[in-house]
Amino acid sequence: xxxxxxxxxxxxxxxxxxxxxxxxxxxxxxxxxxxxxxxxxxxxxxxxxxxxxxxxxxxxxxxxxxxxxxxxxxxxxxxxxxxxx
Length: 85
Known about the structure:
Blueprint: E1 4-5, H1 9-18, H2 23-32, H3 39-46, E2 51-52, H4 53-63, H5 67-70
Antiparallel strand pairs: 1-2
């Protein structure tokens, strides 16, 4: 079973809006870069719902920020290191 994380909602929205992207634009841009992030996942992440580690890695790659910077610290389970991101 894969663990899930909650991302920093305001940071995610800010990163997207700084690039003048709608959620759908972000989805399309991710597809163009072969990043596997669905529109539904973008919406989930931006409403504070849990997403997979893969999603965290894909969004961090898109935004060129460390994966750990996107994660709400309290959502990281004690058995998982931030270096696993």
